[in-house]
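Budget justification aside, the reviewers requested a transparent look at the raw inputs and outputs of the sequence design task funded under Objective 1. We therefore reproduce one unedited record. The lines immediately below are the structure tokens for a 196-residue chain.
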């Protein structure tokens, strides 16, 4: 009896978040099997038709034992865990959610021999983003570069979308600044991008 080749899949850590959902949606639209790893599992209010190939796994990204089984037959990880605003009283800090999460997933990917790792970093934060946000993004990049990974680091500027109305407002303000002949050329490389 012939053994069937096991289907390879993509893991999206933070797949139920603002950017992660769009990564899952795009991959599903191309027929790619996806495993989304996030504390909440399946997000509410989504159209299942847009996520036909996605398996929503509620797991703790900081505890790889809770999602280790999905590393088998995984051909890539896209790490999308992150936050815009800290809530230290809840243990939600830039250091933990950006740097520690990236370090944890990077080590797990390396140990499992995952062929490809994509990290969603940042080229610039939204207006008034604290310096510690970018410091932790850069620290996460530096750590990943120290690992034996086939690594791609994406560094978009601010990302906006309807799910986060405040980002629409910030994008409108930045669009006005882009028209300024002195300021515009300086911020154009990191101009806001739509989430989809």
């Amino acid at each position: 009896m012939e053994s069937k080749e096991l289907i390879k899949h993509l893991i999206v850590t933070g797949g139920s978040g603002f950017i992660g959902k769009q990564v899952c949606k795009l991959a599903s639209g191309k027929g790619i099997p996806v495993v989304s790893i996030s504390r909440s599992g399946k997000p509410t209010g989504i159209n299942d038709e847009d996520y036909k190939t996605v398996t929503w796994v509620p797991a703790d990204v900081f505890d790889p034992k809770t999602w280790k089984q999905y590393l088998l037959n995984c051909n890539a990880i896209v790490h999308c865990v992150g936050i815009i605003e800290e809530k230290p009283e809840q243990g939600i800090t830039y250091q933990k959610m950006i740097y520690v999460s990236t370090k944890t997933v990077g080590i797990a990917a390396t140990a499992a021999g995952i062929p490809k790792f994509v990290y969603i970093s940042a080229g610039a934060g939204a207006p008034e983003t604290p310096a510690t946000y970018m410091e932790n993004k850069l620290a996460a990049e530096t750590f990943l570069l120290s690992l034996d990974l086939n690594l791609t680091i994406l560094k978009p500027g601010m990302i906006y979308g309807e799910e986060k109305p405040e980002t629409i407002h910030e994008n409108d303000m930045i669009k006005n600044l882009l028209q300024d002949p002195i300021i515009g050329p300086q911020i154009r490389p990191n101009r806001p991008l739509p989430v989809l």
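Helices lie at 18-29, 94-112, 131-145, 165-178, 184-187. The chain has a mean pLDDT of 88. Computational costs for records of this kind are itemized in the attached budget.
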